[in-house]
Design goal:
The structure is a single chain. It is built from eight helices and no strands. It is mostly helical. It starts with a helix and ends in a 5-residue tail after the last helix. The relative contact order is 0.17.
């Protein structure tokens, strides 16, 4: 079945992306020169901009680029994300990071299974999830200037709900794409990117809410 073939590729590339991200973050966090360069200069914000550009390019041009180019851009995005993620490894205890990662994997797996097996059409959720995402982004930008810890907890809680919903929604949308385009490698990469982003954001929300900091 095309969907099963697509999902194997999706989860393979998503896993490779996550391993590259967390491996890069772990290594960079142990290198004082690199981590100092990222934290103490504008490099961190440059990396964030590069991440946004790569996501936009992948999302908008995935149908027009070769599978090989899509793979390279996806892995590049995962690597750049690892550079920015290195700050997490110096902010939180490694034991806390590992526990939150495992919890994220379990929760992600449950929601993915729901999206895989449910007969309910989740496409109608898309609009509400997107509106929720826009709200989270706007509030996050506002809180950069406010620096309100309570507001941050509220934002992370709402964001967690949004990306849990996106996980089930995206798995079902990948299923629809597999029926439409068949066993297409580009579809597998865009699917991997969507689920990768869901996983990363769930992890970030959980680490913000429950992570044990080094302070």
């Amino acid at each position: 079945m095309n969907f099963n073939n697509i999902m194997r590729k999706v989860f393979l590339w998503m896993t490779l992306g996550l391993l590259l991200t967390f491996g890069t973050a772990c290594y960079v966090s142990t290198n004082e020169n690199i981590i100092h360069s990222i934290i103490s200069s504008s490099l961190y914000y440059v990396l964030i901009i590069i991440e946004l550009i790569l996501v936009i390019v992948l999302s908008a041009r995935i149908g027009k680029m070769s599978p090989q180019t899509a793979r390279i851009l996806f892995l590049l995005y995962s690597f750049v994300t690892g550079l920015t993620f290195s700050t997490i490894f110096i902010t939180f205890h490694i034991s806390s990071i590992i526990i939150i990662f495992l919890i994220t994997a379990i929760v992600f797996g449950i929601l993915g299974l729901i999206g895989y097996t449910t007969k309910v059409d989740l496409s109608k959720m898309g609009v509400y999830l997107f509106v929720g995402l826009i709200g989270v982004v706007i509030c996050s930008v506002v809180n950069i200037f406010l620096g309100n810890s309570t507001f941050e907890i509220i934002i992370s809680s709402v964001s967690l709900i949004v990306f849990l919903g996106f996980t089930a929604y995206d798995v079902q949308s990948i299923k629809r794409l597999s029926y439409e385009y068949g066993d297409n490698d580009s579809v597998a990469i865009i699917g991997a990117l969507k689920l990768y982003l869901d996983f990363i954001n769930i992890f970030l929300d959980l680490i913000t809410l429950f992570g044990k900091s080094r302070d």
